[in-house]
């Protein structure tokens, strides 16, 4: 089930119904993070806390290429590695010149009797490869390829079903597809194109691991198409290619979990692409350019079929989208209702379409979901489908297996009917869907203004459905070495390129909007086919609080405001540019001998510093920057190249922007006060900082990605007798309640707190602060479902100093009644914090953005025991998205560890 459904169809969702939409996801993350410590995984694969787990997917080194600037394992380095992989594992995306069928013999995973699919009578993960191998050799229509692997290392399978093609025919298809993207105006004029071109259809199964039957319906459909003698099928396969990502989340399928093996909800990760499964899906969409896509979920009864309620994403060509998506939605509804299942006999309710049947609460505003991301790559019909009968959660454990199997059989029928209706729709509307995809790209390439959708374009399309945006002429991302955020700029550029957004680089300086941008600045020209995707990432977003009561998930995100790079929209563009395939390297070490400084203003700098610390380099921490001795020059050069970070000479400008040395070692609550110049000798010795974290899965992932050694803990772990000797800093945001610690656990914690570091986030963290008697502060909660990008003001302390001017919140908090030991590190802006997202006061008028004006969002201090404590009211690691905020957490970790360092 998507915890997405908040209200019965036809009823406006009540505000109170929104809270669960987010909270279960977060809580599930906690349960996963915590449960994995103590409970063996059903799937038999290593769990999060298992020492045999795969290395955290931080920056990987693939050899000779330029550094990877995406913090998470990256395209294009990842792509380069895959290109060198054995033929059987080479992604289809680089095989445009091979014909079909391809007949890849898939390696067989070991049989796993604990696979959660088995109880439901469904195909276990290890049963998929044998089935696909069989189907590939039973005819000439099926090709299966491995396109990546899951967080726990399972192969991801992409199946292509189409009529046989020679290599020359396959090349011709690739050429047409590229032409649609590269020169849509010419493609639009080519009347022969649609006659030759096979319309691509993408079916994504099982992205939520415990919503199984999409994968089984995909397998059934593949088999039917492979073996059918129906002339309609023969015709279909001549005019389309059907792509099936059979199970998008094999870890979750095996483990009976919504999330992948890293604890991430993959269907929230598309703007971030922190997970390998999501990067694989992204690449499918880029390489196949589907005109239609289905994302198969469960469980909502009656079957829920998108299109959605408002608000609608403002960066789509929504007139084209809604026309096709609604028509296909009606077709799927007819096919599903036509199966003949009834409420009385089968417990199956009639299907529902949120766009038609609900006022709001099931929206397509954030492009974090598969069908809300696919339109940016040309899908003009894209749908979440929620099949009806629950088999997961408590039903999985408590319902007799026979009944579960009956439900799963019904669900598989329903999902298969949705697939069948969709390929029938594409067959019947073949030329028009291709033309509409071309039109999406043509409008983008021509830089046409956002087009308001005519009211009544489909029945029920009213003013409440109209959302538009304003596209700038271009975005400029300055990246010179003098820039504060050259490293962040490179990461953002690589992320855009990985998303198939075109990026150029200025060969000489240019003027725009009264400003001069230096040579080397990156330019995202908004006259490009995928300008919608560029804009949805680079615009600040919008405050949609006034327009809707209920949102399904997040309402704000912004790569421009949250990823640490400078991004400026410009209204004119006259620049000499060259297109780039990868950001230029940003790593450097000064020539002059002597100690080096590395500021910690970006996640990459954190990662580089942690690499040095892991090697045992003798680092000192001066409150914002690390000082590295001259003797570690070679190590510095290596991490500079690997992570793209720039060292500066220590003693001059240490690079600790806004922050200062001295404070960190002073041990006073004021932290860093004003500026002593950073000298090689200034600062506190810094060792590797070991973190014990009672945190959600995304936070554990991010802390590990930053290179901190992390031990997950919880109330149960501490009550079982936790050895604190390996911990420098305790991070608390989930799953740890001071009130329920047993006496022995409290005593051990007290011993740690005398000189230990504590960082908290959110309500659970704030409660821990209060219950443990740490800092004097009153926590004021904003409305629980409020979320978005907020303006902030940093106050120059050891944690806040150097922070970006924006942060991210979900269920925002602020702190009042601060004791004399407490320093405000960061505040919500006094002129109204919300930039984009959804944040209203509650029914009593409290907890809104006005109440947060000027309030303390992040505070630090040293309590009377000597514990160095930082409290976050913001969400600096939310779903691994706000990469520009990660360094703030790292500074909190370094500070809370270093101020309390005692001489050995
Ligand atoms: Zn789902």
Written description of the protein model:
This protein is α+β, with helices and mostly antiparallel strands and 904 residues long. Helix content is 33%, strand content 17%. It contains 29 helices and 33 strands. Strands 22, 23, 24, 25, 27, 28, 30, 31, 32 and 33 form a 10-stranded mixed beta sheet that branches. A 7-stranded mixed beta sheet has the order 1-2-4-3-5-9-6. A hairpin with a 5-residue loop joins strand 32 (856-862) and strand 33 (868-872). Helix 3 (125-138) packs parallel to helix 7. The longest helix has 28 residues, at 401-428. Zinc ion binds at residues 2, 208, 211, 297.
Helix content bin: 25-40%
* Percentage beta strand: 15-25%
* Overall geometric form: globular
Rg calc: 27 Å
Count of helical stretches = 29
Could you name the key traits of this structure?
disordered C terminus; globular; alpha+beta; 904 residues; binds zinc ion; single chain; disordered N terminus; seven-stranded mixed beta sheet; ten-stranded mixed beta sheet
């Amino acid at each position: 089930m998507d915890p997405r459904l908040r209200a019965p169809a036809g009823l406006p969702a009540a505000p109170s119904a929104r809270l669960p939409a987010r909270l279960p996801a977060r809580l599930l993350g906690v349960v996963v993070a915590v449960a994995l410590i103590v409970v063996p995984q059903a799937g038999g694969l290593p769990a999060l806390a298992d020492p045999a787990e795969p290395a955290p997917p931080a920056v990987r080194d693939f050899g000779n290429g330029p550094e990877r600037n995406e913090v998470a394992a990256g395209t294009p380095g990842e792509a380069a590695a895959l290109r060198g992989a054995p033929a059987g594992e080479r992604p289809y995306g680089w095989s445009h010149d091979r014909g079909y069928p391809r007949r890849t013999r898939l390696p067989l995973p070991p049989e796993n009797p604990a696979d959660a699919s088995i109880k439901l009578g469904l195909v276990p993960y290890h049963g998929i490869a044998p089935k696909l191998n069989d189907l590939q050799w039973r005819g000439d229509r099926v090709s299966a390829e491995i396109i990546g692997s899951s967080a726990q290392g399972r192969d991801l399978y992409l199946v292509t079903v189409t009529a046989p093609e020679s290599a020359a025919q396959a090349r011709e298809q690739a050429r047409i597809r590229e032409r649609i993207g590269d020169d849509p105006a010419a493609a639009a004029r080519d009347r022969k194109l649609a006659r030759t071109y096979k319309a691509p259809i993408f079916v994504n199964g099982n992205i939520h691991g415990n919503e199984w039957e999409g994968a089984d319906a995909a397998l059934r459909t593949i088999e039917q198409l492979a073996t059918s003698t129906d002339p309609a099928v023969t015709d279909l396969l001549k005019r389309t290619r059907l792509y099936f990502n059979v199970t998008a989340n094999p870890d979750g399928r095996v483990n009976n979990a919504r999330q992948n093996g890293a604890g991430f909800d993959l269907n929230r990760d598309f703007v971030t692409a922190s997970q390998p499964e999501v990067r694989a899906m992204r690449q499918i969409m880029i390489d196949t350019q589907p005109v239609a896509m289905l994302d198969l979920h469960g469980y909502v009864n009656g079957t829920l079929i998108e299109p959605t309620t408002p608000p609608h994403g403002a960066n789509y060509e929504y007139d084209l989208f809604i026309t096709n998506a609604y028509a296909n939605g009606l077709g799927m509804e007819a096919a599903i209702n036509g199966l003949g299942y009834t409420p009385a006999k089968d417990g199956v309710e009639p299907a529902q379409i949120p766009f038609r049947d609900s006022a709001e609460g099931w929206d397509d505003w954030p492009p974090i979901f598969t069908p809300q991301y696919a339109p940016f790559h040309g899908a003009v019909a894209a749908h979440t489908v929620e099949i009806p009968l629950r088999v997961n959660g408590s039903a999985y454990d408590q319902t007799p297996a026979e009944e579960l199997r009956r439900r799963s059989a019904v669900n598989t029928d329903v999902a298969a009917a949705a697939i069948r209706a969709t390929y029938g729709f594409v067959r019947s509307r073949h030329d028009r869907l291709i033309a509409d995809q071309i039109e999406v790209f043509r409008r983008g390439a021509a830089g046409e203004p956002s087009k308001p959708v005519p009211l009544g374009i489909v029945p029920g399309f009213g003013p409440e459905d109209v959302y538009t945006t304003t596209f700038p002429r271009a975005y400029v991302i300055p990246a010179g070495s003098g820039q504060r955020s050259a490293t962040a700029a490179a990461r953002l550029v690589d992320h855009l390129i990985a998303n198939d957004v075109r990026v150029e680089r200025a060969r000489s300086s240019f003027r725009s909007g009264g400003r001069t941008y230096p040579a080397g600045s990156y330019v995202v020209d908004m006259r490009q086919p995928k300008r919608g995707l560029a804009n949805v990432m680079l615009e600040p977003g919008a405050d949609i609080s006034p327009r809707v009561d209920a949102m399904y998930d997040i309402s704000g995100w912004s790569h421009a405001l949250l990823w640490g790079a400078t991004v400026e929209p410009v209204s004119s563009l006259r620049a000499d540019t060259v297109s780039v395939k990868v950001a230029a390297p940003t790593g450097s070490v000064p020539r002059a001998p002597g100690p080096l400084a590395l500021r910690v203003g970006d996640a990459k700098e954190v990662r580089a510093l942690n690499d040095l610390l892991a090697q045992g380099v003798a680092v000192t921490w001066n409150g914002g920057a690390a000082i590295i001795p001259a003797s570690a020059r070679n190590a510095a050069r290596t991490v500079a190249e690997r992570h793209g970070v720039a060292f500066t000479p220590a003693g001059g400008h240490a690079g600790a922007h806004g922050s200062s040395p001295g404070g960190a070692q002073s041990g006073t609550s004021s932290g860093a006060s004003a500026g002593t110049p950073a000298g090689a000798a200034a600062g506190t010795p810094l060792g590797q900082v070991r973190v014990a974290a009672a945190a959600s899965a995304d936070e554990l992932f991010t802390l590990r990605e930053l290179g901190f050694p992390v031990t997950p803990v919880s109330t149960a772990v501490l009550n079982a007798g936790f050895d604190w000797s390996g911990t420098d800093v305790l991070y608390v945001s989930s799953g740890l309640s001071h009130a329920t610690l047993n006496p022995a656990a409290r005593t051990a914690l007290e011993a740690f707190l005398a000189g230990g570091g504590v960082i908290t986030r959110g309500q659970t963290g704030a409660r821990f602060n209060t219950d443990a008697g740490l800092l004097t502060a009153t926590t004021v909660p904003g409305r629980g479902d409020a979320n978005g990008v907020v303006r902030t003001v940093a106050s120059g302390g050891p944690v806040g100093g150097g922070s970006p001017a924006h942060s991210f919140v979900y269920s925002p908090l602020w702190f009042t009644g601060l004791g004399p030991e407490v320093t405000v590190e960061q505040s919500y802006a006094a002129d109204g914090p919300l930039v984009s997202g959804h944040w209203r006061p509650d029914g009593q008028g409290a907890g809104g953005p006005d109440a947060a004006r000027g309030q303390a969002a992040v505070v630090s201090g040293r309590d009377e025991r000597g514990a160095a404590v930082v409290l976050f009211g913001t969400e600096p690691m939310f779903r691994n998205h706000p990469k520009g905020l990660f360094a703030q957490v790292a500074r909190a970790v370094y500070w809370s560890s270093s101020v309390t360092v005692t001489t050995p």
